[in-house]
Design brief:
about 400 residues, alpha+beta, 5-stranded mixed sheet, 3-stranded antiparallel sheet, 15 helices
Length: about 400
Amino acid sequence: MTISTDNEPVALDMSGDPYPFFEYKRKTEPVWRGTIMDHSMAPPEMVPDEEWTLFDYDSVFAAFRNDEVFGSHGYDQTIGLVIGPTILAMHGKQHHDHRSLVAKAFRASALERWEPSVIDPICDALVDEIRDAGQADLVKAVTFEFPTRVTAALLGLPSDDLELFRRLSFDLISISVDIEAGLRASVELHDYFLEQVEQRRRTMTDDIIGDLVAAEIDGEKLTDDAIISFLRLLLPAGLETTYRSSGNLLYLLLTHPDQLRAVQQDRGLIPAAIEEALRYETPLVSVPRTTTRDVVMHGTTIPAGAQVNLCTGSANRDETRWAEPNTFDIHRPRHAHIAFAGGIHMCLGMHLARVETRAMLTSLFDRVTDLELAADDDVGIVGLTFRSPNKLPVTFRPAS
């Protein structure tokens, strides 16, 4: 893709560095009739007839907040085909009731219980597996593994099923590049989770699946399909974004050694580092919505029925909100980002993602020293819809 700035064409690497294009659009056409989405792998019937993209922070934030106009019902015709009906596409009372059922599992009180008993031990064990080797690929060994193991534990899945759960999870969240594998994983996960649900109907357990089996809406139990749809939603929502965001954070710290040292020496900086990484390299670059009526933004009319891509990756680098937005700086003054979306569909697991990432960094810093990125020209954050490093080869020494 090329753009023209000051009458000079500039070629863009949209997978490696889409931010020059985002900046250009924010300044010239923040409401754009066009898309940054790659539909090359999608079936023709799933490609929207008309697409728009919002690039500036205020427009993206306003769209998230106005769910009546920028609806999420389009998910039923996309990811809903393999996951099933979920709170992603629900509205009004139905959304409120279903979200409330599972929200308690992700509240601070629940996380306070899970962190020392589940999350910390998993992260400690993962780093212990590599600490004496002196080198590792942190994507393979840590950033994909810890959210997978944490999610399996919180669901109450048997440890013997971890390999199966990992494979099916990875296949499902890779549906955008391998549709057949994603569809197969969807069917297998339905059968697997159905067995887990039936076990809990016989003997209740203290885990997320047990909570869903016991839950009621207006005196009615959830159906098996409703429970399974939510459990399948947890995989892309809880695994993919967390493993990508934690990989982004590690890469950014490793390529900014002064900030890495600061965080290692002062663990109180970890929360700021997590938020800055989410802002600077938002793992989910764009979130789709569908307009329910004509709407005017920046003097431009977006028609009803259009798919509107809310470009969070651009909004989180809006120069009207952050000074020097293209600089990674964990010490910058805090302004709320929208990496976790907004409005009624704000990410349910955002607090869990933060707790998991903090635990992972703490385990790593407690157990290894002299952590450095190994020489490799192919290491970097890539992707347009989802962004993260494909690998993070590092060297280190075990802490004494």
